[in-house]
Amino acid sequence: MLSFPVRVLSQGAVQVDADLASDDPVWLEGDSRPVRGVHVTGRISGAGSGRFYFSGALSGVAGGECRRCLAPVEIAVQSDLHALFADASDENADEPDVLPLGEGGLTVDLRPAVREQWVLETAVLPLCRPECLGFCPTCGADRNAGPCTCSRS
């Protein structure tokens, strides 16, 4: 579970050990999606009146295509995750690093913070391997399968 009622969090810190599914509605078109979901661990606790702080980590596997040869690529992703959530009435609520409480200030939903950190950590243009030769720009042959036989200028 990655969404917590404020009334529960007001009673004390909560340990988080949950997954964000790759088909969750929080993902946007064009996002680098996790292959099997994102595992999230950490702790969420109060940080003042109407404020909550999450400190933890995420891990998963991102899928994509090699930027040179278009082969399928899976890349392990691991990152620390720290997020501050505040009620809309908080004086710092409009700052870009502060996330709003959900459902009219009644819940702390970690999913948008997880999505944002995931997108920042995943490679936009991954490689299947550093020495990938890709396709020949002249004839389109896969140069990883062997030398190109076209007459390149």
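Second entry:
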Amino acid sequence: MKKVIILGGGYGGIKALETLASYDEEMEVVLIDQHTYHYLQTESYDLVASKIPIQNTLIYLPTLVASFEKGFKFVSDTAKGIEEGRLICEKGEYPFDYLIIATGSVTRFLEGFEEKGERSLGVKSLRAALKVKQFFETELFERLEPQRAEKSFNIAVIGGGLSGIEIAAEMKEYFNRYTKNNALTCGNIKISLISSHILKGLDKKSQETVIARLHSLGVTLVKSRVEEVKDNVAVLDDKREIKFDFAIFAGGIEPSVFVKNLRFEKSEKGFLKVDRYLRVTENIFAVGDAADLKDKNGKSIPPTAQSAEQSGVIAARNVIAAIKKESPIAADIKLRGLAIALGGRYALVVTPFGFNIAGVAGWIIKKGIEQYYKIPLKLKAAKGYKLIKECEERE
């Protein structure tokens, strides 16, 4: 029986898991992740703005994997390296016939930024998002006191990509609504979005819609690049300085430590190079943010949940093809539009058909997309929970 390891329980890893489970081939599949949960990062903006509870942003991996039953297993461990058909982890070594690397990526901080403590954080991980949420809620509570209410509070969001824009918009809209609903007269919470570009690569019309919405919410746009962060000051490339009381970094990604330590060929940014079948070697595949994904024309594919999911499916299909001794499937990853949350019940949906949907209608579509992905996983996890409980009762 062939042994398949999926390393990483993110969007790519979960899709690879589901795809392998849909085949009747006899195999032993192990999902390994240092965490016991799949973090729904596409909903981080709602979590940070306290609109949804933590349980709405995660899927418990042990129960999800248990729902597939046939030879599927979850292991919580931290991968360290690969040696001669074995995945080396902190708690043990795991032999494999095929390995799918789906470790995702981590926030790429400016030098020293991550060492600034509680007043400067990224939001790519669940732990970091919870810290931002806690800090924001604490500040709102303290503004009920007269001595605090009179002071302005400056939040700097560094990065004009999807995460930075969604978090800046959602936090500002939340604060606007918070003060209005509670009839508060207090110093403003100022949110500045600092970036040399807004949603680079997006069409001009969509960019203009996003910028107009941010302006209407009261988000200050600073078109510049942050060169350095020192104490509570962001130093820009034009030597201006932006003072902040709290900073959120959403300015880029880099490979996980595990990928950095691998000796396989990598891109200039350090991500694993793969062939058109997503292979790193004959029996090792890489998907999602861990891989340097290209389209058919050799153009880089943005690291999104969409590209992670599609690459996870393709890698799993090619594992099956290898087991069956069939020809592999070439990757043809295409981004099917984009949904951007822009505060409250407002979103912009950029469709692949040449037109956009903005406002409440866009928000409904975005929420529908999120639920379409999440609900089936929640149902599978519930099934897995039931199976585990039944097994425990029999024992």
